[in-house]
C-alpha cells in the first residue's frame, strides 16, 4: 500500500473540504504516518473515513473530526499542551509539530510505552509521555495553554479545567443526549465557557469521563 499517497488523499478528501484551512494542520497530517500508530493488522485501515478502535477504550478519531477539533483548539507555536488519553501517540505527534511542548497522558502503561517509542522513532523531541489518571490530569506539569482530550466525554472535566492558564483552552468532544459535538472550553479568570463547533461521529466515551447512570424506579 502506498501510505504516502493515502495520506495526501486523506487530507484532500477529509480535511481540506471540511473547513480546516490551517496549513500547519494540513501539513502535519499529511506528513505523519497514521499507520505507525496502529497494530500491524489494522494498518491498511489507517486512512479510511471512519473511527478506528485499536485497543480497549482507544481509537483514532476520523481524520475529519480530529482535524476540526484541532483547528477549533487554535494551537499556537508557543503553547504548552497536555494531551489527555494519548493512546499510541498519534494526536501527540501532530500537536508536537504545532506547539512548543506536549505532555502526553495515558493511563495504560503498555500504550504509554508504545506512544513514547513511536514519538522517539518519529523524532518528536518536544513531547514526553507520562502514565496517570486522565481525569486527574497532570497538575505538577501545568498550568497549560491548551488541553487536548483524545475522545468523547459526558461531563465537564473540572480537574482538567483547573489546570488551564487564564485564557487557556480545552478541546474535546462532548456527548450529550446521544449527540456528539466537538467544542472548546475556555478559561477567563474563574469563569469557564464551552462553545460547540461541529457534529462529531464518535460515540465511545472515555472511561472515567462518562456520566453516572441515574437509577430509575
Explain the overall architecture.
With 217 residues, the protein is of the alpha/beta class. It has a domain at 63-199: Vaccinia Virus protein VP39 (Rossmann fold), CATH 3.40.50. It has helices at residues 3-15, 23-31, 63-73, 90-96, 109-121, 158-161; strands spanning 52-55, 58-60, 80-84, 101-106, 127-131, 144-153, 164-176, 179-188, 191-199. The strands form two sheets. Strands 5-4-3-6-7-8-9 form a seven-stranded mixed sheet, covered by helices on one side. Helix 5 (109-121) links the parallel strand 4 (101-106) and strand 5 (127-131). Helix 1 runs antiparallel to helix 2 (23-31). The longest helix is centred in the N-terminal third of the chain and has 13 residues, at 3-15.
List the helices and strands and how they pair.
Elements: H1 3-15, H2 23-31, E1 52-55, E2 58-60, H3 63-73, E3 80-84, H4 90-96, E4 101-106, H5 109-121, E5 127-131, E6 144-153, H6 158-161, E7 164-176, E8 179-188, E9 191-199
Parallel strand pairs: 3-4, 3-6, 4-5, 6-7
Antiparallel strand pairs: 1-2, 7-8, 8-9
What portion of the residues fall into strands of 2 or more residues?
25-35%
Which shape, going by the Cα principal axes? globular
End-to-end Cα distance: 55 Å
Number-wise, the strands total 9
Please name the fourth-level CATH homologous superfamily of the domain at 63-199. Vaccinia Virus protein VP39
- Give the helices and strands as they follow along the chain: HHEEHEHEHEEHEEE
Summarize the amount of helix as a percent range: 25-40%
Strand order of the largest sheet: 5-4-3-6-7-8-9
| CATH overall fold name of the domain at 63-199 | Rossmann fold
CATH top level label of the domain at 63-199: Alpha Beta
Instruction: Give the oligomeric state of the chains in this entry, treating copies of one chain as homo and distinct chains as hetero.
Output: single chain
